[in-house]
Amino acid sequence: MYTQSLKSIAMKYKLVLTFCFLISMFFTRAQTGALRINANIVLPKDTAVSKALIASLNDFLTAARRPNEENLFIWDAERIETYILLDEINGIEKSGRYKDDLFYKPYLMNAAPLKDSEYFLQISYIGMHDDIPLLRACFELVAHRHNSSFLFSSPLIRNTKGWKKEEIGRNVFHYQASLNKASAKRYTRLAASFDSKLNSKNKVSEFYCCENIIELQKLIGISYKSDYNGKAESMWASKLGNKKLIVAGNNNASFNEFDEHDLWHERLGLVIPRSQVNNPVDEGCAYLYGGSWGLPWKDIFTAFYRQIAADKQVNWCAVKESPVFFKTKGIDNSADYIINALLVQKIEREKGFAGVWELLNCGKAEQGNKNYYTALERLTGITKADYNAKGWELIAAEKKKLKL
User: Fold this and answer.
1) 2 found inside a domain
2) Residue 67, Cβ neighbours under 10 Å: how many?
3) 152 contacts 64 by C-beta, under 8 angstroms
4) CA 207 and chain centroid, separation
5) Are residues 223 and 323 in the same domain?
6) Do 189 and 176 form a contact (C-beta atoms < 8 A)?
């Protein structure tokens, strides 16, 4: 009897120690985990749900430091919409000024129920310096209950639930009041022509047309980010499979206009990441096929000729290594891109777009441009030694063709 009592006491003592150990582990993890919880926040009353929400959010924000495709905590039905927001969260903890990769810490400020299985979350990234809080950004997310945990999405679709939608060809346009259908149809036709060059099929662009960057940020889930103080316009995009999502916050709520130059980059990016192609050749294509800053190729070439090519002492090999610029609408344009546009035009005329594709994929731009010159010689016979002379020949021919 006495022995059994001792055993009972020992068992209870062991259970108390185990419980205390687990509690201490929980608080240690809470103190050292990435996510901080605002002291005044109202969390779900069900403690199991509350713990699952915090743990899942912590995992989501930690995964946000890696490429979007590796994040396993995204609500799958709204993955491409969430990629745009994740691009803004990625690297948010870093401070170059204070030389700390985890200077800004995430604080959960709000967790409001939307319905039984969803919560609206607000997260602020704040750093402390000399006891002064420094706000970096405020993000908004929707948390979706998934089995015993949560997955997360941008509020973009929720925020545009009452918007109108127009499908033209394989492209989709979301807007609030009106849509310039003529402009949207022109976009669709030009996109199709670029896709034809690229032998690209079944690609989709989906637009959300906004007035400015302020509206753009609110739609995707940014209530504040210090990077955009004082900025009025921007366009953000994400890609998933054959689809590109574009949120246009550039005074274009009705899609009255689009940049044909940027459209080339957009369609190329649906075939191969632009980081993998030779940038000067890519830009040459964009200038030739789409002009720039709303100006057609003829106007661009005219400005290039009058500001740069009128000086016969210019050496185009030197320009390739040390960029020289000319202006259109007060904006700098690289002269090297125009020489590449002329070369693209020559190659496409002689070998078709397959030849242009080969030059596009000659390797990233590098000092000396060895890979570029090797591919160029293979395609055209032009070597580094006669690059300057051939550049002048192409300029003279284009000047004559455009009757300048």
Assistant:
1) no
2) 11
3) no
4) 14
5) no
6) no
Q: CA-CA distance, 351 to 84, in Å (whole number)?
A: 38
Q: CA 151, CA 119: separation in Å to the nearest integer? A: 11
Question: Which of helix, strand or coil describes residue 78?
Answer: helix
Q: Tell me the mean pLDDT in the region 66-82.
A: 97
Residue 105 has phi, psi (to 5 degrees) of: -105, 145
Maximum distance among all alpha carbons in the chain? Answer: 113
Best CA proximity match to 188, nearest among 200, 210, 205, 213? 205
The DSSP code sequence of 334-366 is EHHHHHHHHHHHHHHHHH-HHHHHHHHTS----
Domain ranges, residue 225: 164-268
Q: Which of 188, 160, 186, 156 is nearest to 175 (CA)?
A: 160
CA 298/CA 178 separation, integer angstroms:
32
Would you say 139 and 217 are in contact if contact means Cβ atoms under 8 Å apart?
A: no
Task: Tell me the β-bridge partners of 74.
Answer: 152
- Quick one: pLDDT at residue 172? 97
- For residues 214 and 225, give the distance between their C-alpha atoms in angstroms, rounded to a whole number: 11
What lies within 8 Å, CB to CB, of 169 at 6+ separation is 188, 191, 192
Residue 39's pLDDT is 85
CA distance 251 to 341: 29
Q: 118 with 62, same domain?
A: yes
Q: pLDDT for 372-401, tens place per residue? A: 999 999 999 999 999 999 999 999 999 999
Work out how many domains the chain is built from and give that number: 3
Distance CA 91, CA 133 (A): 19
7 inside domain: no
Cβ count near 261 (within 10 Å) = 22
Q: pTM of the entire structure? A: 0.85
The Cα-based distances of 318 to 31, 165, 322, 323 in angstroms read 57, 50, 6, 8
**Structure tokens, 44:** 């779900």
